[in-house]
Fold this sequence. Notes:
Layout: H1 8-20, H2 44-47, H3 77-84, E1 92-95, H4 101-117, E2 122-126, H5 144-152, E3 162-167, E4 177-182
Parallel strand pairs: 1-2
Antiparallel strand pairs: 2-4, 3-4
Helix pairs in contact: 4-5
Amino acid sequence: MKRRGVSKGEAALWKRVTETVRPIGGRGPSPQKPPGVATGETTREAMTPVSARAPGKAAPRTRKSAPKVSAFAAGDPGAERRVKRGKVDVERTLDLHGLREAQAHSRFHAFITTAASEGCRCVLVVTGKGRPERKASEDRPRGVIRKRFQDWVDEEPLRGLIARVAPARPKDGGDGAFYVFLKGARAQR
């Protein structure tokens, strides 16, 4: 296979880089910044001299924070597998059947806060599936608590206490219940 040569632009860039490098440990001459290049920037645009950039072009973008991850996708999936195999016990259970949305929300909040402060790692929350005989309508949808539960676990300050949420296995409630894995004391800080 034939090796390709170095282009003039690559050679110039390499020369600029080698002029700014200093040995590990700080020995040797201090680096000289090429004129027109900002220090600390490593993007291709930053390596281009300021005079060669397009007029009015914005500075390189900074890294954005990571998008917020839902508790249904976060945490350790191994913990979920251990519970489903029966290797980890559910320490507490909260049943929200028959409650109105506001009552269920306040009980859920208090339950999670208390369980986390007492060091529980896995709790079960039974939301129910909704009544099959009740038809959904605009003013009274079916399975409101189950649907709202998914929003509640991602609300602050509870999101800081919850590591992961997973659907329960059939013996613990199936589609009408969820395992809530709580963070340890160190992870909550």
